[in-house]
Specification:
Oligomer: heterodimer
Order of helices and strands of chain B: HHH
Largest sheet of chain B: none
Number of strands of chain A: 0
Radius of gyration of chain A: 19 Å
Number of domains of chain A: 1
Structural class of chain B: mainly alpha
Largest interface: A-B, 34 and 27 residues
Number of helices of chain B: 3
Largest sheet of chain A: none
Number of helices of chain A: 12
Helix content of chain B: over 70%
Distance between the termini of chain A: 38 Å
Shape of chain B: rod-shaped
Helix content of chain A: over 70%
Structural class of chain A: mainly alpha
Radius of gyration of chain B: 19 Å
Chain lengths: 285, 76
């Protein structure tokens, strides 16, 4: 497999997805919105701009966090396409939380620090992820993505047979797309939150990393809950999934940090009730 | 002043060289993994490390010119 080509393709599609996401949100809100290639222009714009490190920054962390974001999601992409372990994807997600903290704390900016603190608060979003992964194991008996895909070929897609688990994963991905109601770490009242001081080449690198992240998370959801399909169909399914999120993002205001955490805990309660139901019923319905 | 200090550390030429070297590493590792000369996981590991370096160094190489620009015409 030409891993490099897949990574470059995922970056391009991820940036395009971000642009489509913005466009759809704008059209729902009866605004013209930017062109769908706006995120490419953003990356170019940032890379041509001045790049420096603030005096207050922890220099090594400030710089190293950017390649770390790109590297972890590039690794996750490889794990996904080779049908590796879901635990590795979970580990990457946790590492991403650490990079969110690191981004904000490394700059020394009060806005960045506030974004990092909110990132710690929103760590409750890992709870639905744990519930989702535990639920998938409970239902399929394996955490290997290849086994989960094979299970769906025999027993039907998990999106229908294990809807509450899919709902938990959906909330996780929703919390990570731009302009999400759960996106408290980069809310406008704290400028750009944890990304505030990263600009120039660093911000362009971050945009590349976040494009990879969006592509991987959407593809993970489609693979885990719909199953194996041709690559072009995976792209279309990912786009449809993103569009549903665009509607939510367009119609829902930014939640307060405490409301965001409450909803995420509500999701895990639904999953626990569902798993208890399966356990008492003696297997999958 | 801060800007000049930062730019002294990484010149555009150094960034271009880093971008070129990391791109070569990425392409070589990916091709070797594809043809089966090295283990797929090893190839992916090398690409995962080299690709972010390529991205950052490319963007650093693209940054704005360090030369002084023309003074804008301010009128007579």
């Amino acid at each position: 497999m030409m891993i490099l080509l897949y990574i470059i393709f995922a970056v391009i599609v991820g940036l395009l997805f971000h642009g489509i996401h913005r466009k759809v949100i704008a059209r729902i809100q009866t605004r013209p919105g930017p062109p769908i290639w706006q995120e490419f222009l953003h990356v170019m714009k940032f890379s041509f701009k001045q790049t420096w490190i603030p005096k207050t920054a922890s220099k090594v962390l400030f710089v190293a966090i950017v390649p770390a974001v790109i590297a972890i999601w590039a690794g996750a992409l490889y794990v996904l396409f080779t049908g590796g372990s879901l635990l590795v994807i979970f580990g990457v997600y946790l590492l991403h939380k650490i990079t969110e903290h690191g981004l904000g704390l490394s700059s020394g900016s009060p806005y960045g620090k506030l974004g990092a603190i909110r990132s710690v608060l929103s760590a409750a979003s890992e709870i639905p992820l744990i519930a989702s992964i535990a639920g998938i194991y409970f239902v399929t008996g394996s955490l290997m993505i290849s086994d989960i895909v094979a299970y769906q070929a025999d027993h039907g897609i998990l999106l229908i047979t294990a809807l509450p688990i899919a709902l938990a994963m959906y909330v996780i991905i929703l919390s990570k797309v731009p302009y999400s109601p759960f996106g408290i770490i980069e809310a406008k009242e704290i400028v750009s939150g944890n990304k505030t001081e990263h600009f120039g080449a660093f911000r362009a690198g971050l945009e590349v990393g976040f494009a990879l992240k969006t592509f991987v998370l959407l593809a993970v959801f489609v693979t885990l809950f719909i199953g194996a399909m041709p690559f072009w169909m995976l792209l279309i399914a990912s786009l449809i999934l993103l569009l549903t999120m665009s509607f939510i993002c367009a119609l829902t205001p930014m939640l307060s940090p405490y409301d965001a955490v409450t909803i995420q805990i509500g999701v895990i309660i639904i999953v626990i009730i569902y798993m208890a139901f399966i356990a008492f019923a003696g297997g999958m319905p | 002043m801060i800007r000049k200090e930062t730019e002294k550390k990484i010149s555009k030429d150094q960034a271009k060289a880093a971008a070129l070297i990391s791109a070569i590493i990425c392409i070589t590792a990916s091709a070797l993994a594809f043809t089966g000369h090295i283990n797929g996981w090893l190839g992916a590991g090398i690409v995962v490390v080299a690709f972010p370096v390529f991205v950052l160094s490319l963007f650093t190489a693209l940054r704005e010119s360090t030369k002084d620009g023309d003074y804008p015409f301010v009128g007579y």
